[in-house]
Amino acid sequence: MATVMADDAVRTLLDLLARGAGGEQLAQVAATARASGLDGADLALIEQATENALRVRHTVAEHRRREAELTALFDTASDLARLRDTDAVLRSIVHRARMLLGVDVSYLTMNDEVAGRTYMRVTDGSVSALFQQVTLAMGEGLGGLVAQTARPYATRDYFADERFRHTNPIDTSVRDEGLAAILGVPLLLGSKVIGVLYAADRTPRDFAAEEVALLASLADHAAIAIDNAHLLDETRLALAELNGANETISAHNAAMRRAEEAHDKLMDVVLRGGDVPDVAAAVAEVLHGGIAVYDAAGVELARVGAGSARLSAKAVGKSRSSGRAVSTQDNWVCAVHAGQELLGSLVLTGRPELADADRRLFERAGVVTALLLMLRRSVAQAEDEVRGELLTDLLTAPDRNPGALLARGRRLGVDLTEPHAVLVATADQVPRRRLALAAARYGALVGVHADQVVVLSRESAPGKLAARMATVLGSTLDTDVTVGAAGPVAGVSALVEAHAEAARCLRSLLALGRSGQGGSMADLGFVGLLLGEATDLDAYVRSTLGPVLDYDERRGTELLRTLRAYFSSGSNLTKAKEVLHVHVNTVAQRMERIGSLLGDDWQSPERSLEIQLALRLHDVMP
């Protein structure tokens, strides 16, 4: 009877999950089972099933949230590509900001430098007429701090925050709207702040870095819309005042139309699912030049007809600080950023001179590229979380359902039955998530486990890969990155054992003072021989004495015998020549040859110990 109740409870949980029930309803199943007096294995089964159901509901909710964010981003890009009316574009951006961040209110203010005032331009979600009509002196409130510094600022509790200037007009309107937490990002035209885009909640909360970057990306598009409006106004004024300059104005209008069409074309590439090479090809076509795209670390992402492109870090920094494309001799450089976060850069070649319209178009290409990189990162983060969950389950509960782990791996394009190397990395003063993102290029499966970054790679030489990772990641992150490696091995249980060995290798590297290096147990010499899970004596001897053994075999010499006699004679050449029955000069010549084969440091205490241990093992091995 109790087993039947357990089965019924499991079916109830599945039914609740299918209907999208809340966490309280799911938790009630276990509570009902406990209240009914059920105990023992059946109660444990129901409680475990309830815990799994809650975990599944949480995972599904997270995936739905990420899907909603990506949908909102694509909708925003679609609106920007379709709309021409400035007010409609701004209303769309403010509305999307509210949807994307899930806040109570979003709004946009503009600066009037002539009047020295800041006024409300667009609101979404506001219920206060006072708030919707507020005007302020320049520098007041949170927006004043954003405008003065040209940087995003967020406050968890507006009225408790003393970093900015509180005045009666702004405090009264914020209080009337009932706002508490506010995030503001600048609208920039070059280095000039023309307004501020806000997201606000009526309850205290913190804003994540991803939310700041996304709002900043929307603010960049709002600035473009306003810039377009300003340019169109300037054109109309020129038409009214300079009737005789039809030819010049026509050329200006043509440039504007070309810029708009080019911007639409770039946005269309993004909306159709294009990647960085597609955007680079579109930019190269409309600007009639070569384009190279780089990420924030200076790694090339795409190149189209840009044979002479060379990235200048100084030029990227200048473009980032000014918000404009800058010239470097024969090339142009434009920083790609979202708010204060640098995402990469564009280099334009073959166009030593750029008209203002083409320069603006090049800068707009940077904004579109920023949006694309943000979208790619959002998708990559979602995929990385799924891969991280598989890695965690693989290392924490490999025996629970090995078949399910293999199936999940295949869905992610990872065949765990094939040989994989396992690497474990750590770095001081670097968030583990950032280290994992940087290490993603090296493995099929990357995640954080036990406060360390774990990588599964198809690399057949894990020690070499670990050394390469330590060098490259250390340079990229500007800190020591230490990497232990093991494998390659195949199968769930073998991968778990290899992870344990890689973790031991990492601890050994740190204990030996080799922080910032990478390797496997085989690279640790006799320490690796002692700590390794499966001791391979022949491999140790070959890795230590291999060049000498090979030389003797090819030349028919007695370098190994000479080396053995040298150590047995207390590293004394005279005593060694008596053991070998040769002239002391012959011994010296042989020792010189041994040094050229084993390296200049072969007589250092550490290497000497490893070589003598390898000689002893060679003597006793069959």
The CATH top-level class label of the largest domain? Alpha Beta
Give the number of helices: 22
Could you say which overall geometry the principal axes of the C-alpha atoms support? Answer: globular
Please report the distance between the alpha carbons of the first and last residues: 65 Å
Oligomeric composition of the shown chains: single chain
Number of domains as seen in the coordinates:
5
Instruction: Report on the biggest sheet.
Output: 6 strands, antiparallel
State the fourth-level CATH superfamily of the largest domain. Answer: GAF domain
Classify the beta-strand content into a percent band: 15-25%
In total, how many beta strands?
16
What this model shows, in words?
The chain is an alpha+beta fold. The chain is 58% helix and 17% strand. The longest helix has 43 residues, at 40-82. The chain starts with a helix and ends with a helix. The protein folds into 5 domains: 2-68; 83-231, Beta-Lactamase; 246-377, GAF domain (Beta-Lactamase, 2-Layer Sandwich); 397-531, 2-Layer Sandwich (Alpha-Beta Plaits), CATH 3.30.70; 537-620, no CATH class. It has helices at 2-18, 23-35, 40-82, 86-101, 129-132, 141-149, 168-177, 209-241, 246-271, 276-287, 313-322, 356-396, 402-411, 432-439, 462-477, 492-511, 526-531, 537-555, 559-568, 573-580, 584-598, 605-620; strands at residues 105-112, 117-124, 135-137, 153-155, 181-189, 192-201, 290-295, 300-304, 326-328, 331-338, 341-349, 420-427, 445-449, 452-457, 481-489, 518-520. Helix 3 (40-82) runs antiparallel to helix 12 and helix 10 (276-287) packs antiparallel against helix 12.
